[in-house]
Design goal:
Layout (H helix, E strand, L loop, with lengths): L1 H17 L26 H13 L17 H13 L9 H13 L2 H12 L5 E4 L15 E5 L2 E12 L6 E7 L10 E7 L5 E6 L8 E12 L3 E2 L5 H21 L6 H12 L10 H27 L10 H23 L13 H13 L9 H12 L5
Parallel strand pairs: 1-4
Antiparallel strand pairs: 2-3, 3-7, 4-5, 5-8, 6-7
Bound molecules: flavin-adenine dinucleotide.
Length: about 400
Protein backbone atom coordinates (compact mmCIF):
# COMPACT_ATOMS: atom_id res chain seq x y z
CA UNK A 1 0.00 0.00 0.00
CA UNK A 2 2.87 2.35 0.82
CA UNK A 3 4.20 1.59 -2.65
CA UNK A 4 0.84 2.50 -4.14
CA UNK A 5 0.81 5.83 -2.27
CA UNK A 6 4.32 6.52 -3.52
CA UNK A 7 3.14 5.68 -7.03
CA UNK A 8 0.23 8.08 -6.60
CA UNK A 9 2.48 10.96 -5.55
CA UNK A 10 4.93 10.35 -8.38
CA UNK A 11 2.16 9.96 -10.94
CA UNK A 12 0.45 13.13 -9.83
CA UNK A 13 3.72 15.05 -10.09
CA UNK A 14 4.46 13.61 -13.52
CA UNK A 15 0.98 14.42 -14.81
CA UNK A 16 1.20 17.97 -13.49
CA UNK A 17 4.54 18.45 -15.19
CA UNK A 18 3.56 16.86 -18.53
CA UNK A 19 -0.18 17.34 -19.02
CA UNK A 20 -0.63 20.32 -21.38
CA UNK A 21 -2.76 23.02 -19.68
CA UNK A 22 -4.78 23.63 -22.84
CA UNK A 23 -6.34 20.15 -22.83
CA UNK A 24 -7.50 20.20 -19.19
CA UNK A 25 -11.25 19.60 -19.08
CA UNK A 26 -11.48 18.86 -22.83
CA UNK A 27 -12.31 15.58 -24.62
CA UNK A 28 -14.27 14.27 -21.65
CA UNK A 29 -16.53 11.98 -23.67
CA UNK A 30 -15.59 9.01 -25.81
CA UNK A 31 -16.98 10.70 -28.92
CA UNK A 32 -14.75 13.76 -28.40
CA UNK A 33 -11.67 11.64 -27.71
CA UNK A 34 -8.67 10.92 -29.93
CA UNK A 35 -9.33 7.77 -31.95
CA UNK A 36 -5.97 7.74 -33.73
CA UNK A 37 -5.29 5.99 -37.01
CA UNK A 38 -3.82 7.00 -40.36
CA UNK A 39 -6.62 9.57 -40.76
CA UNK A 40 -6.44 10.79 -37.14
CA UNK A 41 -7.99 14.15 -36.36
CA UNK A 42 -6.58 16.11 -33.43
CA UNK A 43 -8.53 19.03 -31.96
CA UNK A 44 -5.23 20.81 -31.14
CA UNK A 45 -1.45 20.34 -31.38
CA UNK A 46 -1.43 19.80 -27.60
CA UNK A 47 -3.86 16.88 -27.94
CA UNK A 48 -1.43 15.30 -30.41
CA UNK A 49 1.49 15.98 -28.05
CA UNK A 50 -0.46 14.47 -25.14
CA UNK A 51 -0.95 11.24 -27.11
CA UNK A 52 2.76 11.10 -27.99
CA UNK A 53 3.92 11.74 -24.40
CA UNK A 54 1.55 9.20 -22.88
CA UNK A 55 2.29 6.56 -25.54
CA UNK A 56 6.01 7.00 -24.92
CA UNK A 57 5.39 6.15 -21.25
CA UNK A 58 3.12 3.21 -22.16
CA UNK A 59 0.15 4.92 -20.51
CA UNK A 60 -2.26 4.73 -23.44
CA UNK A 61 -2.60 1.05 -22.45
CA UNK A 62 -1.43 1.17 -18.83
CA UNK A 63 -1.85 -2.52 -17.95
CA UNK A 64 -0.53 -4.06 -21.17
CA UNK A 65 2.97 -5.56 -21.02
CA UNK A 66 5.79 -3.15 -21.76
CA UNK A 67 7.15 -5.27 -24.62
CA UNK A 68 3.96 -4.55 -26.60
CA UNK A 69 3.95 -0.80 -25.91
CA UNK A 70 1.92 -0.85 -22.69
CA UNK A 71 2.79 0.55 -19.29
CA UNK A 72 3.16 -2.75 -17.41
CA UNK A 73 1.13 -1.35 -14.49
CA UNK A 74 -0.79 -3.53 -12.06
CA UNK A 75 -4.61 -3.06 -12.03
CA UNK A 76 -4.23 -1.08 -8.77
CA UNK A 77 -1.62 1.22 -10.26
CA UNK A 78 -3.76 1.69 -13.39
CA UNK A 79 -6.67 2.70 -11.17
CA UNK A 80 -4.49 5.23 -9.37
CA UNK A 81 -3.36 6.65 -12.71
CA UNK A 82 -6.96 7.01 -13.85
CA UNK A 83 -7.95 8.64 -10.53
CA UNK A 84 -5.09 11.13 -10.69
CA UNK A 85 -5.93 11.99 -14.33
CA UNK A 86 -9.57 12.52 -13.33
CA UNK A 87 -8.53 14.81 -10.44
CA UNK A 88 -6.49 16.96 -12.82
CA UNK A 89 -9.26 16.71 -15.46
CA UNK A 90 -6.77 15.36 -17.99
CA UNK A 91 -8.51 13.44 -20.80
CA UNK A 92 -7.55 9.93 -21.93
CA UNK A 93 -4.81 10.36 -24.55
CA UNK A 94 -6.44 7.76 -26.83
CA UNK A 95 -9.74 5.87 -27.13
CA UNK A 96 -11.06 3.29 -29.58
CA UNK A 97 -11.66 -0.34 -30.39
CA UNK A 98 -7.94 -1.15 -30.61
CA UNK A 99 -7.48 -0.47 -26.92
CA UNK A 100 -10.82 -1.82 -25.74
CA UNK A 101 -11.59 -4.75 -28.03
CA UNK A 102 -8.99 -6.19 -30.38
CA UNK A 103 -5.97 -5.40 -28.16
CA UNK A 104 -7.17 -7.41 -25.13
CA UNK A 105 -8.26 -10.19 -27.52
CA UNK A 106 -4.80 -10.34 -29.12
CA UNK A 107 -3.24 -10.51 -25.66
CA UNK A 108 -5.41 -13.54 -25.01
CA UNK A 109 -5.45 -15.35 -28.37
CA UNK A 110 -2.83 -13.73 -30.64
CA UNK A 111 0.48 -15.45 -31.32
CA UNK A 112 3.73 -13.64 -30.58
CA UNK A 113 4.12 -12.29 -34.15
CA UNK A 114 0.55 -10.97 -34.18
CA UNK A 115 0.99 -9.25 -30.82
CA UNK A 116 4.29 -7.68 -31.84
CA UNK A 117 2.86 -6.50 -35.15
CA UNK A 118 -0.39 -4.95 -33.91
CA UNK A 119 -0.24 -4.01 -30.23
CA UNK A 120 2.50 -1.33 -30.35
CA UNK A 121 0.68 0.41 -33.25
CA UNK A 122 -2.51 0.43 -31.20
CA UNK A 123 -0.68 1.90 -28.19
CA UNK A 124 0.81 4.68 -30.31
CA UNK A 125 -2.56 5.44 -31.93
CA UNK A 126 -1.18 4.70 -35.41
CA UNK A 127 -3.88 2.25 -36.52
CA UNK A 128 -7.61 2.60 -35.95
CA UNK A 129 -9.73 -0.56 -35.79
CA UNK A 130 -13.36 -1.35 -36.53
CA UNK A 131 -15.51 -4.41 -35.92
CA UNK A 132 -16.94 -6.56 -38.74
CA UNK A 133 -19.35 -8.87 -36.95
CA UNK A 134 -22.97 -8.02 -37.96
CA UNK A 135 -24.40 -8.81 -41.37
CA UNK A 136 -27.81 -8.06 -42.90
CA UNK A 137 -29.06 -11.50 -41.76
CA UNK A 138 -26.81 -12.07 -38.79
CA UNK A 139 -27.17 -9.73 -35.80
CA UNK A 140 -28.45 -11.38 -32.64
CA UNK A 141 -28.00 -14.71 -34.37
CA UNK A 142 -24.41 -13.85 -35.16
CA UNK A 143 -23.34 -17.42 -35.87
CA UNK A 144 -25.51 -17.37 -39.02
CA UNK A 145 -23.04 -15.05 -40.73
CA UNK A 146 -22.39 -15.72 -44.41
CA UNK A 147 -19.35 -13.67 -45.48
CA UNK A 148 -17.29 -16.45 -46.95
CA UNK A 149 -13.57 -17.10 -46.84
CA UNK A 150 -12.14 -19.61 -49.29
CA UNK A 151 -8.61 -20.90 -48.85
CA UNK A 152 -6.26 -20.40 -51.80
CA UNK A 153 -2.65 -21.29 -50.99
CA UNK A 154 -1.48 -19.16 -48.07
CA UNK A 155 -4.44 -16.78 -48.34
CA UNK A 156 -8.12 -16.67 -47.50
CA UNK A 157 -10.22 -14.99 -50.20
CA UNK A 158 -13.07 -13.09 -48.54
CA UNK A 159 -16.37 -12.13 -50.20
CA UNK A 160 -19.51 -10.79 -48.54
CA UNK A 161 -21.05 -7.91 -46.64
CA UNK A 162 -20.98 -6.56 -43.11
CA UNK A 163 -23.36 -3.93 -41.78
CA UNK A 164 -23.47 -1.41 -38.90
CA UNK A 165 -19.66 -1.30 -38.94
CA UNK A 166 -19.03 1.66 -36.63
CA UNK A 167 -16.48 4.12 -38.08
CA UNK A 168 -15.47 1.79 -40.93
CA UNK A 169 -14.90 4.85 -43.12
CA UNK A 170 -12.36 6.22 -40.63
CA UNK A 171 -10.63 2.95 -39.78
CA UNK A 172 -7.48 1.29 -41.10
CA UNK A 173 -8.03 -2.35 -40.12
CA UNK A 174 -11.09 -4.44 -39.39
CA UNK A 175 -11.41 -7.56 -37.21
CA UNK A 176 -14.00 -9.69 -38.93
CA UNK A 177 -15.83 -12.99 -38.58
CA UNK A 178 -15.95 -15.03 -41.78
CA UNK A 179 -17.41 -18.40 -42.73
CA UNK A 180 -14.43 -20.55 -43.63
CA UNK A 181 -16.16 -23.94 -43.51
CA UNK A 182 -19.69 -23.90 -44.96
CA UNK A 183 -20.22 -27.61 -44.16
CA UNK A 184 -19.51 -27.50 -40.41
CA UNK A 185 -22.08 -26.79 -37.66
CA UNK A 186 -22.59 -23.02 -37.82
CA UNK A 187 -20.43 -22.05 -34.79
CA UNK A 188 -17.68 -24.42 -35.92
CA UNK A 189 -17.13 -23.00 -39.41
CA UNK A 190 -16.20 -19.46 -38.41
CA UNK A 191 -12.74 -17.85 -38.52
CA UNK A 192 -11.65 -14.65 -36.77
CA UNK A 193 -9.64 -12.60 -39.26
CA UNK A 194 -7.71 -9.31 -39.28
CA UNK A 195 -8.06 -7.41 -42.56
CA UNK A 196 -6.20 -4.30 -43.68
CA UNK A 197 -8.92 -2.03 -45.09
CA UNK A 198 -6.47 -0.81 -47.75
CA UNK A 199 -6.49 -4.27 -49.38
CA UNK A 200 -8.02 -4.23 -52.90
CA UNK A 201 -11.70 -5.30 -52.83
CA UNK A 202 -12.66 -3.64 -49.50
CA UNK A 203 -15.18 -0.81 -49.77
CA UNK A 204 -17.38 1.07 -47.29
CA UNK A 205 -20.59 3.08 -47.55
CA UNK A 206 -21.69 5.26 -44.59
CA UNK A 207 -25.26 4.90 -43.28
CA UNK A 208 -27.08 7.96 -41.99
CA UNK A 209 -28.80 7.59 -38.63
CA UNK A 210 -31.87 9.06 -36.98
CA UNK A 211 -29.55 11.40 -35.00
CA UNK A 212 -28.29 12.92 -38.26
CA UNK A 213 -24.79 11.50 -37.80
CA UNK A 214 -23.23 8.77 -39.94
CA UNK A 215 -21.07 6.89 -37.48
CA UNK A 216 -21.45 3.53 -39.15
CA UNK A 217 -21.24 1.89 -42.53
CA UNK A 218 -21.94 -1.04 -44.76
CA UNK A 219 -18.64 -2.81 -45.48
CA UNK A 220 -18.18 -4.90 -48.61
CA UNK A 221 -15.55 -7.53 -49.40
CA UNK A 222 -15.09 -8.51 -53.02
CA UNK A 223 -12.55 -11.31 -53.33
CA UNK A 224 -10.25 -9.74 -50.75
CA UNK A 225 -7.01 -11.71 -50.31
CA UNK A 226 -5.98 -11.98 -46.68
CA UNK A 227 -2.85 -13.88 -45.60
CA UNK A 228 -3.48 -16.86 -43.33
CA UNK A 229 -1.11 -15.33 -40.78
CA UNK A 230 -3.93 -12.86 -40.04
CA UNK A 231 -6.14 -15.61 -38.58
CA UNK A 232 -6.49 -15.21 -34.79
CA UNK A 233 -6.71 -18.55 -32.99
CA UNK A 234 -7.38 -21.61 -35.09
CA UNK A 235 -8.77 -21.67 -38.62
CA UNK A 236 -12.54 -22.42 -38.18
CA UNK A 237 -12.03 -21.82 -34.44
CA UNK A 238 -13.06 -18.16 -34.45
CA UNK A 239 -16.25 -18.50 -32.41
CA UNK A 240 -14.34 -18.80 -29.12
CA UNK A 241 -12.29 -15.71 -29.98
CA UNK A 242 -15.45 -13.87 -31.09
CA UNK A 243 -17.22 -14.52 -27.77
CA UNK A 244 -14.21 -13.40 -25.74
CA UNK A 245 -14.08 -10.17 -27.70
CA UNK A 246 -17.78 -9.59 -27.03
CA UNK A 247 -16.98 -9.77 -23.31
CA UNK A 248 -14.44 -6.96 -23.78
CA UNK A 249 -16.92 -5.00 -25.91
CA UNK A 250 -19.68 -5.27 -23.31
CA UNK A 251 -17.31 -4.15 -20.55
CA UNK A 252 -16.31 -1.17 -22.65
CA UNK A 253 -19.94 -0.22 -23.40
CA UNK A 254 -20.82 -0.51 -19.70
CA UNK A 255 -17.86 1.71 -18.88
CA UNK A 256 -18.61 4.34 -21.53
CA UNK A 257 -22.33 4.64 -20.85
CA UNK A 258 -22.48 3.67 -17.18
CA UNK A 259 -19.10 5.21 -16.39
CA UNK A 260 -20.47 8.39 -17.97
CA UNK A 261 -22.36 8.83 -14.74
CA UNK A 262 -19.05 9.33 -12.98
CA UNK A 263 -17.52 11.52 -15.63
CA UNK A 264 -20.09 14.28 -15.90
CA UNK A 265 -23.25 12.84 -17.49
CA UNK A 266 -25.10 13.13 -14.19
CA UNK A 267 -24.02 16.75 -13.75
CA UNK A 268 -25.46 17.34 -17.25
CA UNK A 269 -28.80 16.06 -15.94
CA UNK A 270 -28.74 18.44 -12.98
CA UNK A 271 -27.55 21.33 -15.16
CA UNK A 272 -30.41 20.80 -17.63
CA UNK A 273 -32.91 20.56 -14.78
CA UNK A 274 -31.63 23.78 -13.16
CA UNK A 275 -31.80 25.67 -16.44
CA UNK A 276 -35.23 24.44 -17.54
CA UNK A 277 -36.87 24.47 -14.13
CA UNK A 278 -35.48 27.95 -13.54
CA UNK A 279 -33.68 27.02 -10.33
CA UNK A 280 -30.02 28.12 -10.56
CA UNK A 281 -29.42 26.98 -6.98
CA UNK A 282 -31.12 25.35 -4.00
CA UNK A 283 -33.65 22.49 -4.22
CA UNK A 284 -35.47 22.03 -7.52
CA UNK A 285 -39.05 23.34 -7.28
CA UNK A 286 -40.87 20.42 -8.94
CA UNK A 287 -41.02 17.52 -6.41
CA UNK A 288 -41.82 14.89 -9.06
CA UNK A 289 -38.88 15.82 -11.29
CA UNK A 290 -36.69 16.16 -8.21
CA UNK A 291 -37.59 12.64 -7.19
CA UNK A 292 -36.88 11.22 -10.67
CA UNK A 293 -33.53 13.02 -10.87
CA UNK A 294 -32.50 11.83 -7.41
CA UNK A 295 -33.43 8.24 -8.29
CA UNK A 296 -31.46 8.36 -11.55
CA UNK A 297 -28.45 9.85 -9.75
CA UNK A 298 -28.62 7.22 -7.03
CA UNK A 299 -28.91 4.41 -9.57
CA UNK A 300 -25.91 5.79 -11.46
CA UNK A 301 -23.78 6.01 -8.34
CA UNK A 302 -24.76 2.56 -7.13
CA UNK A 303 -23.99 1.15 -10.55
CA UNK A 304 -20.57 2.84 -10.67
CA UNK A 305 -19.76 1.43 -7.22
CA UNK A 306 -20.92 -2.06 -8.24
CA UNK A 307 -18.69 -2.02 -11.32
CA UNK A 308 -15.79 -0.80 -9.20
CA UNK A 309 -16.41 -3.51 -6.60
CA UNK A 310 -16.52 -6.18 -9.28
CA UNK A 311 -13.22 -4.94 -10.76
CA UNK A 312 -11.55 -4.74 -7.37
CA UNK A 313 -12.71 -8.25 -6.55
CA UNK A 314 -11.46 -9.68 -9.82
CA UNK A 315 -8.05 -11.27 -9.69
CA UNK A 316 -5.31 -9.67 -11.78
CA UNK A 317 -5.53 -11.02 -15.31
CA UNK A 318 -9.24 -11.84 -14.91
CA UNK A 319 -11.02 -11.84 -18.27
CA UNK A 320 -14.54 -10.55 -18.63
CA UNK A 321 -17.13 -13.35 -18.48
CA UNK A 322 -20.91 -13.53 -18.88
CA UNK A 323 -21.34 -11.10 -15.95
CA UNK A 324 -20.42 -8.30 -18.38
CA UNK A 325 -23.91 -8.84 -19.85
CA UNK A 326 -25.39 -7.59 -16.56
CA UNK A 327 -23.28 -4.44 -16.66
CA UNK A 328 -23.91 -3.84 -20.35
CA UNK A 329 -27.65 -4.28 -19.85
CA UNK A 330 -27.90 -2.03 -16.80
CA UNK A 331 -25.54 0.70 -18.05
CA UNK A 332 -27.28 1.13 -21.38
CA UNK A 333 -30.81 1.00 -19.95
CA UNK A 334 -29.71 3.60 -17.38
CA UNK A 335 -28.23 5.83 -20.07
CA UNK A 336 -31.44 5.65 -22.10
CA UNK A 337 -33.49 6.43 -18.96
CA UNK A 338 -31.25 9.42 -18.16
CA UNK A 339 -31.68 10.83 -21.67
CA UNK A 340 -35.46 10.30 -21.59
CA UNK A 341 -35.57 12.24 -18.35
CA UNK A 342 -33.46 15.10 -19.69
CA UNK A 343 -35.66 15.45 -22.77
CA UNK A 344 -38.80 15.29 -20.63
CA UNK A 345 -37.47 18.07 -18.39
CA UNK A 346 -36.44 20.21 -21.38
CA UNK A 347 -39.96 19.88 -22.86
CA UNK A 348 -40.35 21.30 -26.41
CA UNK A 349 -36.82 22.76 -26.14
CA UNK A 350 -35.50 19.21 -25.94
CA UNK A 351 -37.03 18.32 -29.30
CA UNK A 352 -35.26 20.93 -31.44
CA UNK A 353 -33.22 19.96 -34.46
CA UNK A 354 -31.70 23.16 -35.82
CA UNK A 355 -32.40 26.84 -36.33
CA UNK A 356 -33.27 29.88 -34.24
CA UNK A 357 -34.81 29.75 -30.79
CA UNK A 358 -32.81 26.82 -29.41
CA UNK A 359 -29.87 26.73 -27.04
CA UNK A 360 -26.92 24.76 -28.49
CA UNK A 361 -26.85 22.40 -25.48
CA UNK A 362 -30.52 21.51 -26.06
CA UNK A 363 -29.94 20.81 -29.76
CA UNK A 364 -27.08 18.52 -28.75
CA UNK A 365 -29.40 16.88 -26.22
CA UNK A 366 -31.97 15.99 -28.90
CA UNK A 367 -29.29 14.21 -30.92
CA UNK A 368 -27.74 12.54 -27.88
CA UNK A 369 -31.21 11.28 -26.88
CA UNK A 370 -31.75 9.79 -30.34
CA UNK A 371 -28.25 8.26 -30.27
CA UNK A 372 -28.96 6.67 -26.89
CA UNK A 373 -31.71 4.57 -28.54
CA UNK A 374 -28.91 2.50 -30.06
CA UNK A 375 -27.47 1.63 -26.63
CA UNK A 376 -29.81 -1.27 -26.06
CA UNK A 377 -28.91 -2.68 -29.51
CA UNK A 378 -25.12 -2.26 -29.99
CA UNK A 379 -22.85 -4.97 -28.61
CA UNK A 380 -25.84 -7.35 -28.49
CA UNK A 381 -29.40 -6.24 -27.70
CA UNK A 382 -30.85 -6.04 -24.20
CA UNK A 383 -32.96 -9.14 -24.89
CA UNK A 384 -29.83 -11.07 -25.84
CA UNK A 385 -28.07 -9.89 -22.66
CA UNK A 386 -31.04 -11.11 -20.62
CA UNK A 387 -30.80 -14.48 -22.38
CA UNK A 388 -27.07 -14.69 -21.56
CA UNK A 389 -27.72 -13.75 -17.91
CA UNK A 390 -30.49 -16.35 -17.65
CA UNK A 391 -28.41 -19.12 -19.17
CA UNK A 392 -24.80 -18.46 -18.26
CA UNK A 393 -25.02 -16.44 -15.03
CA UNK A 394 -28.16 -17.87 -13.39
CA UNK A 395 -27.91 -21.31 -15.01
CA UNK A 396 -31.61 -21.40 -15.92
CA UNK A 397 -32.72 -24.05 -18.43
CA UNK A 398 -33.52 -23.12 -22.08
C1 LIG B 1 -24.91 2.20 -32.43
C2 LIG B 1 -24.61 0.84 -32.98
C3 LIG B 1 -23.31 0.50 -33.32
C4 LIG B 1 -23.03 -0.77 -33.83
N1 LIG B 1 -21.74 -1.05 -34.21
C5 LIG B 1 -21.45 -2.25 -34.74
C6 LIG B 1 -20.11 -2.53 -35.20
O1 LIG B 1 -19.20 -1.70 -35.10
N2 LIG B 1 -19.87 -3.73 -35.75
C7 LIG B 1 -20.82 -4.69 -35.87
O2 LIG B 1 -20.50 -5.78 -36.33
N3 LIG B 1 -22.10 -4.45 -35.48
C8 LIG B 1 -22.43 -3.25 -34.93
N4 LIG B 1 -23.73 -2.98 -34.53
C9 LIG B 1 -24.77 -3.96 -34.81
C10 LIG B 1 -25.33 -4.66 -33.58
O3 LIG B 1 -24.39 -5.55 -33.03
C11 LIG B 1 -26.62 -5.37 -34.00
O4 LIG B 1 -27.53 -4.38 -34.43
C12 LIG B 1 -27.23 -6.17 -32.90
O5 LIG B 1 -26.43 -7.29 -32.59
C13 LIG B 1 -28.66 -6.65 -33.22
O6 LIG B 1 -28.72 -7.28 -34.45
P1 LIG B 1 -29.82 -6.86 -35.55
O7 LIG B 1 -29.73 -5.38 -35.74
O8 LIG B 1 -29.63 -7.72 -36.72
O9 LIG B 1 -31.24 -7.15 -34.86
P2 LIG B 1 -31.99 -8.55 -34.79
O10 LIG B 1 -31.02 -9.59 -34.36
O11 LIG B 1 -32.72 -8.77 -36.04
O12 LIG B 1 -33.01 -8.31 -33.60
C14 LIG B 1 -34.27 -7.64 -33.77
C15 LIG B 1 -35.04 -7.70 -32.46
O13 LIG B 1 -35.32 -9.07 -32.12
C16 LIG B 1 -34.84 -9.35 -30.80
N5 LIG B 1 -34.31 -10.72 -30.75
C17 LIG B 1 -33.55 -11.34 -31.68
N6 LIG B 1 -33.22 -12.60 -31.27
C18 LIG B 1 -33.77 -12.76 -30.05
C19 LIG B 1 -33.78 -13.83 -29.09
N7 LIG B 1 -33.14 -14.98 -29.32
N8 LIG B 1 -34.47 -13.64 -27.93
C20 LIG B 1 -35.11 -12.48 -27.66
N9 LIG B 1 -35.14 -11.42 -28.54
C21 LIG B 1 -34.49 -11.56 -29.70
C22 LIG B 1 -33.71 -8.36 -30.57
O14 LIG B 1 -33.49 -8.13 -29.19
C23 LIG B 1 -34.23 -7.11 -31.28
O15 LIG B 1 -35.12 -6.42 -30.44
C24 LIG B 1 -24.06 -1.73 -34.01
C25 LIG B 1 -25.37 -1.40 -33.66
C26 LIG B 1 -25.66 -0.12 -33.16
C27 LIG B 1 -27.08 0.23 -32.82
Amino acid sequence: MADLEEFRVETNAWLRANGPASIVGTMQTNEEGIWGGRKAVFPSPDAKRWLAIMAERGWTAPTWPREYGGGGLSPDEARVLSQEMAKLRLPPPLVGFGLTMIGPTLLQFGNEDQRREHLPKICRGEIRWCQGYSEPDAGSDLASLKTRAVREGDDLVVTGQKVWTSYADKSDWIFALVRSDPHAKKQEGITFLLIDMATPGVSVRPIQLISGASPFCETYFDEVRVPLRNVIGALHGGWTVAKALLGHERSMIADVFGGGARKGASSALVEIARRHLDAPEGPLPDPIQRDRIAQTELDARCFALTVQRSRDGAKAGHRPGPETSMFKYYATELNERRHELMVRIAGPQGLGWEGEGFVAEDLALTRAWLRSRGNSIEGGTSEIQLNVIAKRVLGLPD
